[in-house]
Amino acid sequence: MSVRIRLSRGGSKKRPFYRVVAADQRAPRDGRFIERLGSYNPMLPQDHAERFMINEERVKYWLSKGAQPTERLEKLLSKLGLVAAPALREQPKKSALKTKALERIREKEEKAKAAAEAAAAEAASAEEASAE
Question: Which of 1, 53, 55, 108 sees the fewest Cβ atoms within 10 Å?
Fold first, then answer.
């Protein structure tokens, strides 16, 4: 049995509220769980004390038994110093800009650079004319 520390959703439509639970990974998201470890209310401001409440002793216990936190909980628990922060993953190549888009960006940069050089040269010539 593989145990995960994860969020179980509650609350009404468009008003989420999550319970932090230790559950068998095969159990449904909002279904059966082994133990409730805390709560997470994303509707509250980030500095609010009741936004993320957790029983640290029980989380440490489950982590020592081999429970794996989900990515979202790994981020939240790393802020408390209970686990290491998750490594940032690279963006998928599928969402990278295509060649035509990259060409357009380069063209815009070149035009902007040329315009800046022309403006600088014009300002320098105007300054020379006023000096004479």
Answer: 1
96/50 Cα distance (integer angstroms): 39
Cα-Cα-Cα-Cα dihedral sign, residues 111, 113, 114, 120: positive
H-helix or E-strand spanning residue 38: strand 35-40
pLDDT value at position 96? 82
> Could you list the residue range(s) of the whole structural domain that residue 121 is in?
93-131
For the segment 54-104, what is each residue's pLDDT rounded down to a tens digit?
999 999 999 999 999 998 899 989 988 888 888 877 777 787 888 999 999
CATH number at residue 73: 3.30.1320.10
Q: How many residues comprise the chain?
A: 132
Same domain, 9 and 65: yes
- Same domain, yes or no: 74 and 119: no
Assigned domain for 85 exists: no
